[in-house]
């Protein structure tokens, strides 16, 4: 039997959280998600109300991380920025996973000209760095959160299409699939009941790791002013505004940068723990 | 063996010592200059066709007339001039011994061939008053006028009337100013990478610099590299870390820091720049003059001056820089912060305050697209403007565009509102930005108004004397402001910052802006 049924996957998260790496990374990620969701209840400040005379105030009891160039509380902006960064990266990777799995599964299962066409398209996309694909798409669609989500989603589409296609091609000739087919199961039943559930585990792990990359990509686009538009905060945009104040108020660029770095590190660490817990490599060997 | 090793070491040491002692003079033959961020993206060094010309342009092309800091006129390629009493003719005596970079002589025939080249170009208005050019002798020409033009000397002193070599201009066509640029200036164009940098090499024959400069030529640096850096903070970091030698316009944020640094020096002059917010009068909700006026009155210029620009510069309340006589308009036409009136106007226009602080009318929120350039100073200013608009219930959705691309975006006419700036010190900038024949860009507001066109015609072509021109332009300026297509924001000073270990400059600047009059005096630091 393959690894990665729903039961083993839910157990894997518990196993991942039982490791020191998993608990540290999971703890940080839980904190970030909690802060992102409950930001309005955790801070007394509005993220968008300017107080210009209080600009560039250093960290103090009133403003733990200081204020930005418009006198806004930087901690509040970072908390709301987590909301932007996590939602954009999660939705973007969701788009990649959903579309990539559909395309990859269809290509791997049906083969023929469709498979060749998808493979060529994916290889073509794969030959460009994600940042370049995303920049081109944002330039076409215009800056903003929606454009960024779609751009990042498309940028990572090739990765999930390839992964799913490879999984499906490996599994579709297994005896349990043959057995199901000989019992009269149709394409749809085999694909959705047997193949996709068994292909899901590596995709989950890849999605976890890609989310970290997507956070960096979102921050990069935000840094160039192409992500969330002011006054909506995002970690990249916060860093970008901090570059102009590097000497006057270095905390404006450093602290959002730390938030990005620690969160991406935590995602990678947790992804690593998850890989071990799921024993994905063993599963892939079996496949 | 030992002797030969010692010999080698000694020779190496002597060579290194020689190289070290020579290094400053060798390296000092080249200076790297960063253009102002609002000069980024110039597509060509073509004074006839170009609508954006950067400072390097003045190093390639000389003008007939030069201006000093007080805006007085002085000879340059023209040694002297005389205006007929009725204003219907101007006679210019040209400097002798001047040659173009390609060896062609500069003489009366040059002027005869040059002026007609403006026909059909964006800059044709500069010579629109000239009926024809007559060659009186080898170095004397007369402009026969269609009507008097009190602005003639100003036009001749503008960057757009730098004199290109007419034969090369015709021969190269659209490539002129891109692959090759031929003028009489103190530098020749060696290379030009659009949006990146321009490399100029010294014109060794140059001896005809303006008397306003200490040095009349040749220039003291062999090569000048003009770099285009759109991001102000990056430009400043380059100056501070020694990557470049001169910033032509130090961003206001960094003025105090340049003053504090031991090896950096700051020269300031009254600026020619004006920052403003413009509204597209053909796009809802700005088709309603009440909404335009409300948005204009929502801008708190003093708050912006104090908090964004550290109090350096002036809060603007007219569309012209304050040094111009046409900026002295009646108080009722000045546009200054008045939030109460802004709110009242929006109420009157039917926009009622919604629960989230954004006004609503017929179920639609008062949301507008607010365009700006991507460099940090503009982004920062626009965020403050956005907050000030929000304070009266207008929600501005900021969209940032690359500095080099935004002019093309304006040409689409899709803009609703934008924060931008211009650099000019003549009242005809009102014609440039609000003339009905330049919709999209430069008429970003898409302002077309019959009365404005009448006043514009009177100002541009109906003035017989300087005093009449001032009066006509003042009336035109007042009328445009009364229609609120624009809200003035800020008038900065120009701060030229340079590295004193690499470059030396005179302590004062006798020019209305940074141009060849200033930069020809730039020398390697001793």
UniProtKB/TrEMBL annotation, chain A:
The chain crosses the membrane at residues 23-42, 86-111, 131-158, 203-229, 249-271. Residues 82-271 form the ABC transmembrane type-1 domain. Gene3D superfamilies: MetI-like (1.10.3720.10). The keyword Cell membrane applies. InterPro entries: BP-dependent_transpt_permease (IPR050366), MetI-like (IPR000515), MetI-like_sf (IPR035906), OppC_N (IPR025966). Keywords: Cell membrane, Membrane, Transmembrane, Transmembrane helix, Transport. The keyword Membrane applies. It is found in: Cell membrane. It is a multi-pass membrane protein. Belongs to the binding-protein-dependent transport system permease family. This is ABC transporter permease.
From TrEMBL, chain B:
Coiled coil: none annotated. Gene3D superfamilies: Dipeptide-binding Protein, Domain 3, Periplasmic binding protein-like II. SUPFAM superfamilies: Periplasmic binding protein-like II (SSF53850). It is found in: Periplasm. Its main location: periplasm. It comes from the Bacteria. Residues 1-28 form the signal peptide. Residues 73-428 form the Solute-binding protein family domain. InterPro entries: Peptide/Ni-bd, SBP_5, SBP_5_dom. Keywords: Signal. Belongs to the bacterial solute-binding protein 5 family. This is ABC transporter substrate-binding protein. It comes from Sedimentitalea xiamensis.
